[in-house]
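Why Cytochrome bo(3) ubiquinol oxidase subunit 3? Reviewers of the renewal asked for a concrete example.
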Amino acid sequence: MSNHNVTADGALGANPSSRFLVREHHPENGTLLGFWLYLMSDCLIFAVLFAAYAVLGRNYAGGPSGAELFDLKLVAINTALLLLSSITYGFAMLEMQKKKLKPTMIWLGITGLLGVAFIYFELYEFMHLIHEGAGPQRSGFLTSFFALVGTHGLHVSFGIVWLVTLLFQLKKHGLTPENGRRLMCLSMFWHFLDVVWIGVFTFVYLMGVLP
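Here is what the prediction returned.
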């Protein structure tokens, strides 16, 4: 048998000790397309949660209503934090396009801190409601409220973990094309969460304080 080896170009190599050359095939924009499909599935999840809240949002079971429970000032601060984090992520993407690693990482770090602050205030609100006896088991309204707002909070928490992971990858490998794709996917995810939160703020909190 021949000892010739096959290279990545399909040519025969004469050196028996030569290694197989393998090229990784990555479809152009394949990652972004796959992530768009994931976001569409996430849209369905939140659509179901919004629909459940629309049905159960006035089912107080003799308990407190949103007008009695919601602190709009706190929620407004939390909304401002999340919207501001979207702006800082935009600055990070602009710096990435300029191939400036350090400013990119700084803006990503600021985005992560704003996300942590958002989660802190959300947990504070949850703990306060539970302390007041308004836990998720109290009524259909509170069950659907905790499910919708809590699911959004879990997504933000996941986004923060993803962001921290990307910071380590950027520090180790720099602004490679792979890291650029990951930053773009996280950007879509983060802005998607902003859009969902605007819906939560309007549909749950603002409408919830109406008589």
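The first helix runs from residue 30 to 56. This is the kind of structural detail the renewal will allow us to pursue systematically.
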